[in-house]
């Protein structure tokens, strides 16, 4: 039985969103939400009854905003906008993202500023609760005037159109509505536009990327600490006093995590307390400074995304208390685009630093470990090509991290003359995150291998736990073997959040 989650509109926490990202639940809309929803829909009806001309309710859209639509064609107008705007292309978004899109759209509409009837929200809720996920193509949005194409595909099933994915099978939208126990809907005035306007696609994609990057960040701290042990690195760079005098909060927090991970019980550390080495390379020594900067950007980006997930981002907005319906630009996803760009840069730096530690560990002159971390070198190539793979992935991320928000291509005959590119900015986070996870996986394999060469000395308790976690899936590399499965096994552990638990 799935967990029942009661939604108070506009009050989703990041933890709430992550729980929905991780697994399906049953959504119940708080009873108190219906008053605002019904008042908003009634305001739209009242405006129409007075014969007022209001954008998106009885006019065309975009550059056609000055075209008045007669009353007998209003229902057809809303249906046609959904059908015409469902113009996305290429592979479908994964269910985890579509589930978040549904959740965020319900959350936004339920705030009571969109003018939609309860039945529309209930239809989306039924799809979500029955795990009937609309098939949403991944490409075709510029992130203003909202995520029009993805959101159109998201709501096509309400009209009995489009496709859904249910239990891994692709079905028609009409079949999906039957499984959800709902009849198809004839959209009322403004409802098609309210469903299509908004930033729920780009926000869901950005959150999907954020959660993956957060797990990669956690893993990089643990694996980076393991590399310090394997390379017999100094503990002094993590001294609290160093970071306090600079005052950067992320740097201080990361140094604190390293002190916890490296602990006071390490036999490896005690074995080289009086070594002559003065300083370690930056990839070991400057982890608090680099990863601390990443930490600060993660905090900044997640605050923006949490606010956006709770915001009302369609247009026009209905203010029932005054009877006003106001046109604005909340659909412009620039906050999401910039947050995603920040995440892309930060994530790429996680991978760049990890790749440098991988290079350090295989270099006998820097690590004082066997060349390429294997005995009988020459006959065995060891970790030589694994580090090459890490370098390739780190290089790829440099291109992927180029800011998307600095680009804009005008659309809708120049009515929409500046756009955010937020949907791409957010979508490419998954590619970057996967690259980073693989890079860290390679470092993890190397650092664990390095620890084996320090035996019988034991590392700090948390590091030994991370070593045991890996060895449960991947054996010591005693001679050359098929390497790719080792990387995949380590990456799957990281992606599942196994190393995040060591930071709790």
UniProtKB/TrEMBL annotation:
It catalyses: L-histidine = trans-urocanate + NH4(+). Its EC number is 4.3.1.3. The keyword Lyase applies. GO terms for biological process: L-histidine catabolic process to glutamate and formamide; L-histidine catabolic process to glutamate and formate. It is found in: Cytoplasm. CDD domains: PAL-HAL (cd00332). Keywords: Cytoplasm, Histidine metabolism, Lyase. There is a cross-link at residues 144-146 (5-imidazolinone (Ala-Gly)). Pathway: Amino-acid degradation; L-histidine degradation into L-glutamate; N-formimidoyl-L-glutamate from L-histidine: step 1/3. GO terms for molecular function: histidine ammonia-lyase activity. The modification 2,3-didehydroalanine (Ser) is found at residue 145. GO terms for cellular component: cytoplasm. Contains an active site 4-methylidene-imidazol-5-one (MIO), which is formed autocatalytically by cyclization and dehydration of residues Ala-Ser-Gly. PANTHER family: HISTIDINE AMMONIA-LYASE (PTHR10362). Belongs to the PAL/histidase family. This is Histidine ammonia-lyase. It comes from Pseudidiomarina aestuarii.
């Amino acid at each position: 039985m799935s967990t029942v989650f009661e939604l108070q509109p506009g009050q989703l926490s990041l933890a709430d969103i992550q729980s929905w990202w991780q697994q399906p639940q049953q959504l119940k809309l708080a009873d108190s939400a219906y008053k605002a929803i019904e008042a908003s829909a009634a305001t739209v009806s009242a405006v129409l009854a007075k014969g007022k001309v209001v954008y998106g309710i009885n006019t065309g859209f975009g550059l056609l905003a000055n075209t008045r639509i007669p009353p007998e064609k209003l229902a057809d107008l809303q249906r046609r906008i959904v059908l015409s705007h469902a113009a996305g292309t290429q592979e479908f978004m994964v269910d985890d993202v579509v589930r978040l899109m549904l959740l965020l759209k319900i959350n936004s509409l339920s705030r009571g500023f969109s003018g939609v009837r309860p039945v529309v929200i209930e239809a989306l809720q039924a799809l979500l609760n029955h795990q009937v996920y609309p098939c949403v193509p991944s490409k075709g949005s510029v992130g203003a005037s909202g995520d029009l194409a993805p959101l159109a595909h998201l709501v096509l099933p309400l009209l009995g159109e489009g496709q859904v994915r249910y239990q891994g099978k692709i079905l028609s939208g009409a079949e999906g509505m039957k499984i959800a126990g709902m009849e198809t809907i004839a959209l009322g005035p403004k409802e098609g536009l309210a469903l299509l306007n908004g930033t729920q696609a780009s926000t869901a994609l950005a959150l999907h990327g954020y959660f993956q990057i957060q797990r990669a960040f956690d893993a990089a701290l643990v694996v980076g600490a393991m590399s310090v042990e394997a390379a017999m690195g100094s503990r002094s760079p993590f001294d609290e006093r160093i970071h306090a005098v600079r005052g950067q909060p992320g740097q201080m927090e990361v140094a604190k995590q390293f002190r916890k991970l490296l602990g006071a019980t390490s036999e490896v550390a005690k074995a080289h307390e009086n070594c002559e080495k003065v300083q370690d390379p930056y990839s070991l020594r400057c982890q608090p400074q680099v990863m601390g900067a990443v930490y600060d950007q993660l905090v900044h980006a997640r605050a923006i995304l949490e606010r956006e997930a709770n915001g009302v981002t369609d247009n026009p907005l209905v203010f029932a208390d005054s009877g006003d319906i106001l046109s604005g630009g909340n659909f412009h996803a620039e906050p999401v685009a910039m947050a995603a760009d920040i995440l892309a840069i930060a994530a790429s730096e996680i991978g760049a630093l990890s790749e440098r530690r991988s290079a350090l560990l295989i270099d006998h002159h820097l690590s004082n470990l066997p060349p390429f971390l294997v005995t009988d070198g020459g006959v065995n190539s060891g970790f030589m090509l694994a580090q090459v793979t890490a370098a390739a992935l780190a290089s790829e991320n440099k291109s992927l991290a180029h800011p998307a928000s600095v680009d804009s291509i005008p659309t809708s005959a120049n009515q929409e003359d500046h756009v955010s590119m937020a949907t791409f900015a957010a979508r490419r986070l998954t590619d970057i995150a996967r690259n980073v996870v693989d890079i860290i996986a390679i470092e993890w394999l190397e650092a664990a291998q390095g620890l084996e060469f320090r035996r019988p000395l034991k590392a700090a308790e948390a590091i030994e736990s991370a070593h045991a976690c890996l060895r449960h899936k991947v054996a010591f590399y005693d001679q050359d073997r098929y390497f790719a499965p080792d990387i995949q096994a380590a990456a799957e552990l990281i992606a599942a959040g196994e190393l995040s638990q060591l930071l709790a």
